[in-house]
Specification:
The complex is a heterodimer of chains A (about 110) and B (about 110).
Chain A (H helix, E strand, L loop, with lengths): L3 E3 L3 E5 L4 E7 L4 E9 L6 E7 L4 E3 L3 E6 L4 E6 L8 E9 L7 E2 L3 E6 L1
Parallel strand pairs in A: 2-11
Antiparallel strand pairs in A: 1-3, 3-8, 4-5, 4-9, 6-7, 7-8, 9-10, 9-11
Chain B lengths: L4 E3 L2 E4 L5 E6 L6 E7 L5 E8 L2 E5 L7 E4 L6 E5 L8 E8 L7 E2 L3 E5 L1
Classes of the chains: A mainly beta (about 110), B mainly beta (about 110).
Chain lengths: ~110, ~110
C-alpha cells in the first residue's frame, strides 16, 4: 500500500556521534518531504525539507538525503547533542493530493552522555 | 519567534459531550490545519482550511467534526458528540502557503471517558 514508514523505532547515540534516521516511502508520486522533531509534550517541530527534484539538502547540523530510486529518505544529524533526544518523523506530500501531509511512524532518538 | 498556540493543553470530557479545541495560528498565515495523534500512533491529517472554508478533509473528519474561524485570529475544532476513540492529542498547524514549513502548536490532549 502507499505509506511512509520508518526502519528503526529507537536509536541510541553517543553524544558527539552522528545520527542517521531512515524513512522508506512507497509512493513515487510524492514530491515533497519533511522531517519533524517532536519533544515530549510538544508539537512536531520543522527541521528540514526537500523537494523531489533534489537529492540532498543541508541545514544547520542536519542533512536530508533523498534516494528516489529506492524510495528512501534519511536525516543525518551531525555531532548529536542531548537536546537532539526526541522522536523524529518523516512526512510526505503526494503530488496532486492537496496540502495534506502523510506522516511516518516515528523514530525515538536517545542521546547518551 | 511566532508560534501556534492551543488551549486548553488538556481536556477531559464524558462520552457524548461536545468539546471545542481552540487554536491561535501565526498571524500572517493563511492555511490552517488540524491533525491528531493517538497515543503511540502516527500523526494523522484531519482537515485543512483556507479562505474561510474547508479545502480538504480526511475520512476521520466525519459529521461529528467541524471547524470554524470565528474571527481574524482563532481557529477552532468542535467535536459534537465525543466517542472514546476520539481520545488523542490534537494538533493545530498553520502555514503561509500549502504545507511547506508547517508550524504546529503544542497540542491539546483530549481524554474521553
Amino acid at each position: 500500500g502507499e505509506s511512509v514508514g520508518l526502519h528503526l523505532p529507537t536509536l541510541s547515540v553517543q553524544e558527539g556521534d552522528n545520527s542517521i534516521i531512515n524513512c522508506a516511502y512507497s509512493n513515487s508520486a510524492s514530491d515533497y518531504f519533511i522531517w519533524y522533531k517532536q519533544e515530549s509534550g510538544k508539537g512536531p517541530q520543522f527541521i528540514i525539507d526537500i523537494r523531489s527534484n533534489m537529492d540532498k539538502r543541508q541545514g544547520q547540523r542536519v542533512t536530508v538525503l533523498l534516494n528516489k530510486t529506492v524510495k528512501h529518505l534519511s536525516l543525518q544529524i551531525a555531532a548529536t547533542q542531548p537536546g537532539d533526544s526526541a522522536v523524529y518523523f518523516c512526512a510526505e506530500k503526494k503530488r496532486a493530493a492537496g496540502n495534506k501531509l502523510t506522516f511516518g511512524g516515528g523514530t525515538r532518538v536517545l542521546v547518551k552522555p | 519567534e511566532p508560534e501556534v498556540t492551543q488551549t486548553p493543553s488538556h481536556q477531559v470530557t464524558q462520552m457524548g459531550q461536545e468539546v471545542i479545541l481552540r487554536c491561535v495560528p501565526i498571524s500572517n498565515h493563511l492555511y490552517f490545519y488540524w491533525y491528531r495523534q493517538i497515543l503511540g500512533q502516527k500523526v494523522e491529517f484531519l482537515v485543512s482550511f483556507y479562505n474561510n472554508e474547508i479545502s480538504e478533509k480526511s475520512e476521520i473528519f466525519d459529521d461529528q467534526f467541524s471547524v470554524e474561524r470565528p474571527d481574524g485570529s482563532n481557529f477552532t475544532l468542535k467535536i459534537r458528540s465525543t466517542k472514546l476513540e476520539d481520545s488523542a492529542m490534537y494538533f493545530c498547524a498553520s502555514t503561509r502557503g500549502g504545507v511547506e514549513k508547517l508550524f504546529f502548536g503544542s497540542g491539546t490532549q483530549l481524554s474521553v471517558l
